[in-house]
Design a protein that fits this description.
The chain has helices at residues 2-29, 41-53, 116-125, 165-175, 187-194, 208-215; strands at residues 31-39, 57-71, 78-85, 88-96, 104-113, 128-143, 146-153, 156-162, 197-198, 201-204. The protein contains six helices and ten strands. It has one domain: Beta Barrel (Hypothetical Protein Pfu-838710-001).
Protein backbone atom coordinates (compact mmCIF):
# COMPACT_ATOMS: atom_id res chain seq x y z
CA UNK A 1 0.00 0.00 0.00
CA UNK A 2 1.34 3.47 -0.93
CA UNK A 3 0.82 4.95 2.53
CA UNK A 4 2.75 2.07 4.14
CA UNK A 5 5.67 2.47 1.73
CA UNK A 6 5.73 6.21 2.41
CA UNK A 7 5.65 5.58 6.18
CA UNK A 8 8.57 3.14 5.93
CA UNK A 9 10.55 5.68 3.89
CA UNK A 10 9.92 8.42 6.47
CA UNK A 11 10.98 6.07 9.31
CA UNK A 12 14.12 5.07 7.43
CA UNK A 13 15.13 8.71 6.85
CA UNK A 14 14.37 9.57 10.49
CA UNK A 15 16.51 6.78 11.92
CA UNK A 16 19.32 7.52 9.47
CA UNK A 17 19.37 11.15 10.66
CA UNK A 18 19.26 10.10 14.33
CA UNK A 19 22.16 7.70 13.74
CA UNK A 20 24.17 10.44 12.01
CA UNK A 21 23.42 12.86 14.88
CA UNK A 22 24.65 10.33 17.46
CA UNK A 23 27.85 9.72 15.49
CA UNK A 24 28.54 13.44 15.11
CA UNK A 25 27.79 14.15 18.78
CA UNK A 26 30.07 11.31 19.90
CA UNK A 27 32.87 12.68 17.72
CA UNK A 28 32.27 16.21 18.99
CA UNK A 29 32.41 15.07 22.61
CA UNK A 30 35.76 13.28 22.01
CA UNK A 31 34.99 10.45 24.41
CA UNK A 32 38.06 8.49 25.58
CA UNK A 33 37.69 4.96 26.93
CA UNK A 34 40.51 3.00 28.56
CA UNK A 35 41.52 0.41 31.14
CA UNK A 36 44.44 1.03 33.49
CA UNK A 37 46.55 -1.69 35.14
CA UNK A 38 49.01 -1.60 38.04
CA UNK A 39 52.35 -3.14 37.12
CA UNK A 40 55.69 -3.91 38.72
CA UNK A 41 59.08 -4.04 36.98
CA UNK A 42 58.70 -7.73 36.13
CA UNK A 43 55.31 -7.22 34.48
CA UNK A 44 56.60 -4.22 32.55
CA UNK A 45 59.38 -6.37 31.07
CA UNK A 46 56.92 -9.16 30.27
CA UNK A 47 54.40 -6.88 28.54
CA UNK A 48 57.14 -5.11 26.58
CA UNK A 49 58.30 -8.48 25.27
CA UNK A 50 54.74 -9.60 24.59
CA UNK A 51 54.01 -6.47 22.55
CA UNK A 52 57.04 -7.23 20.39
CA UNK A 53 55.96 -10.87 19.95
CA UNK A 54 52.50 -9.77 18.83
CA UNK A 55 53.95 -7.37 16.26
CA UNK A 56 52.65 -4.23 17.97
CA UNK A 57 53.78 -1.05 16.22
CA UNK A 58 55.99 1.06 18.47
CA UNK A 59 55.02 4.73 18.23
CA UNK A 60 57.19 6.82 20.56
CA UNK A 61 58.93 7.24 23.89
CA UNK A 62 58.75 10.52 25.76
CA UNK A 63 59.05 12.39 29.05
CA UNK A 64 56.11 14.54 30.14
CA UNK A 65 55.41 17.25 32.67
CA UNK A 66 51.71 17.50 33.47
CA UNK A 67 50.12 20.50 35.19
CA UNK A 68 46.52 20.06 36.38
CA UNK A 69 44.35 23.10 37.11
CA UNK A 70 41.01 23.26 38.89
CA UNK A 71 38.51 26.09 39.15
CA UNK A 72 38.89 27.60 42.61
CA UNK A 73 37.83 25.34 45.46
CA UNK A 74 35.10 23.65 43.43
CA UNK A 75 35.01 19.85 43.72
CA UNK A 76 34.39 18.96 40.11
CA UNK A 77 35.35 16.16 37.73
CA UNK A 78 36.36 18.73 35.09
CA UNK A 79 40.01 19.78 34.83
CA UNK A 80 42.34 21.70 32.57
CA UNK A 81 45.71 20.07 31.91
CA UNK A 82 48.81 21.63 30.41
CA UNK A 83 51.13 18.87 29.20
CA UNK A 84 54.71 19.77 28.26
CA UNK A 85 56.77 17.38 26.09
CA UNK A 86 60.14 18.90 25.30
CA UNK A 87 59.48 22.17 23.50
CA UNK A 88 55.86 21.30 22.72
CA UNK A 89 52.82 21.98 24.93
CA UNK A 90 49.24 20.73 24.78
CA UNK A 91 46.15 22.13 26.50
CA UNK A 92 43.51 19.57 27.41
CA UNK A 93 40.01 19.78 28.85
CA UNK A 94 39.15 16.59 30.74
CA UNK A 95 35.87 15.60 32.34
CA UNK A 96 35.27 12.23 33.96
CA UNK A 97 32.04 10.40 33.09
CA UNK A 98 30.70 8.58 36.15
CA UNK A 99 30.40 4.85 35.59
CA UNK A 100 30.55 1.57 37.54
CA UNK A 101 32.13 -0.13 34.53
CA UNK A 102 35.64 -1.59 34.53
CA UNK A 103 36.44 0.96 31.83
CA UNK A 104 37.45 4.57 32.53
CA UNK A 105 35.49 6.96 30.34
CA UNK A 106 36.26 10.67 29.92
CA UNK A 107 35.34 13.59 27.72
CA UNK A 108 38.59 15.01 26.40
CA UNK A 109 39.41 17.89 24.07
CA UNK A 110 43.06 18.64 23.31
CA UNK A 111 44.95 21.17 21.22
CA UNK A 112 48.59 22.09 20.73
CA UNK A 113 49.54 25.55 22.00
CA UNK A 114 52.42 27.61 20.66
CA UNK A 115 53.12 29.68 23.79
CA UNK A 116 53.28 27.74 27.06
CA UNK A 117 53.70 30.80 29.31
CA UNK A 118 50.83 32.70 27.68
CA UNK A 119 48.61 29.65 28.02
CA UNK A 120 49.37 29.45 31.75
CA UNK A 121 48.42 33.10 32.16
CA UNK A 122 45.15 32.59 30.27
CA UNK A 123 44.26 29.58 32.45
CA UNK A 124 44.98 31.53 35.64
CA UNK A 125 43.06 34.61 34.45
CA UNK A 126 40.04 32.36 33.88
CA UNK A 127 40.11 31.53 37.60
CA UNK A 128 41.85 28.15 37.48
CA UNK A 129 44.51 27.32 40.09
CA UNK A 130 47.41 24.92 39.71
CA UNK A 131 46.59 21.95 41.95
CA UNK A 132 48.66 18.96 40.80
CA UNK A 133 51.97 18.43 39.00
CA UNK A 134 53.26 15.02 37.95
CA UNK A 135 56.05 13.77 35.70
CA UNK A 136 55.83 10.68 33.56
CA UNK A 137 57.89 8.52 31.22
CA UNK A 138 55.66 6.99 28.55
CA UNK A 139 56.16 4.40 25.79
CA UNK A 140 53.38 3.97 23.24
CA UNK A 141 52.42 1.10 20.93
CA UNK A 142 49.50 0.38 18.61
CA UNK A 143 48.06 -3.13 18.69
CA UNK A 144 44.90 -4.10 16.85
CA UNK A 145 42.50 -1.17 17.09
CA UNK A 146 43.94 0.06 20.40
CA UNK A 147 46.70 2.22 21.79
CA UNK A 148 48.78 0.57 24.52
CA UNK A 149 51.01 2.67 26.79
CA UNK A 150 53.48 1.78 29.51
CA UNK A 151 53.91 4.62 32.00
CA UNK A 152 56.42 5.13 34.77
CA UNK A 153 55.69 7.77 37.41
CA UNK A 154 57.57 8.54 40.64
CA UNK A 155 55.05 6.42 42.55
CA UNK A 156 54.54 3.44 40.25
CA UNK A 157 54.35 1.70 36.88
CA UNK A 158 51.12 1.40 34.90
CA UNK A 159 49.74 0.16 31.61
CA UNK A 160 46.77 1.66 29.77
CA UNK A 161 44.82 0.22 26.85
CA UNK A 162 42.70 2.78 25.02
CA UNK A 163 40.04 2.10 22.39
CA UNK A 164 36.47 0.88 22.05
CA UNK A 165 35.46 -1.44 24.95
CA UNK A 166 35.24 -4.60 22.81
CA UNK A 167 38.62 -3.84 21.22
CA UNK A 168 40.20 -3.21 24.63
CA UNK A 169 39.05 -6.64 25.80
CA UNK A 170 40.53 -8.26 22.68
CA UNK A 171 43.93 -6.63 23.25
CA UNK A 172 43.78 -7.40 26.97
CA UNK A 173 43.33 -11.09 26.12
CA UNK A 174 46.13 -11.00 23.52
CA UNK A 175 48.51 -9.55 26.12
CA UNK A 176 47.38 -11.93 28.85
CA UNK A 177 46.46 -9.02 31.12
CA UNK A 178 43.08 -10.39 32.23
CA UNK A 179 44.22 -11.09 35.80
CA UNK A 180 46.39 -8.00 36.30
CA UNK A 181 45.25 -5.63 39.05
CA UNK A 182 43.17 -2.74 37.72
CA UNK A 183 43.63 0.91 38.75
CA UNK A 184 40.50 3.06 38.61
CA UNK A 185 42.15 6.34 39.65
CA UNK A 186 43.75 8.81 37.30
CA UNK A 187 47.31 10.03 37.77
CA UNK A 188 46.16 13.32 39.32
CA UNK A 189 44.17 11.50 42.01
CA UNK A 190 47.06 9.11 42.62
CA UNK A 191 49.43 12.07 43.01
CA UNK A 192 47.09 13.63 45.59
CA UNK A 193 46.79 10.28 47.40
CA UNK A 194 50.45 9.23 47.37
CA UNK A 195 52.49 12.44 47.26
CA UNK A 196 53.05 15.50 49.41
CA UNK A 197 52.20 19.14 48.83
CA UNK A 198 54.88 21.64 47.87
CA UNK A 199 53.73 25.22 48.44
CA UNK A 200 50.11 24.05 48.36
CA UNK A 201 50.50 21.99 45.15
CA UNK A 202 50.60 18.18 45.09
CA UNK A 203 53.73 17.13 43.20
CA UNK A 204 55.13 13.86 41.87
CA UNK A 205 58.57 14.51 40.41
CA UNK A 206 61.49 12.19 39.77
CA UNK A 207 64.63 12.58 41.87
CA UNK A 208 67.03 14.18 39.40
CA UNK A 209 70.04 13.14 41.49
CA UNK A 210 68.97 9.48 41.47
CA UNK A 211 68.31 9.66 37.73
CA UNK A 212 71.75 11.15 37.11
CA UNK A 213 73.44 8.45 39.23
CA UNK A 214 71.61 5.66 37.36
CA UNK A 215 72.83 7.03 34.01
CA UNK A 216 76.46 7.53 35.10
Amino acid sequence: MPWLAQSNTINYIFFQRVSLFIQVRKSWMAIETEKKYRLDKRLRVEFTARLAELGARFSNERFEENFLYRHGAEDTSARLRLRVIGQTAYLTYKEKIKSDSEFKTKIEHETMVSDEDATRQIIEKLGYDLAVVYEKYRKTWHLGECEVVLDELPFGIYMEIEGEPEEILKVEKMLGANDVELESRGYARLTIKLCEQVNGIFEARFDRRATARSKS
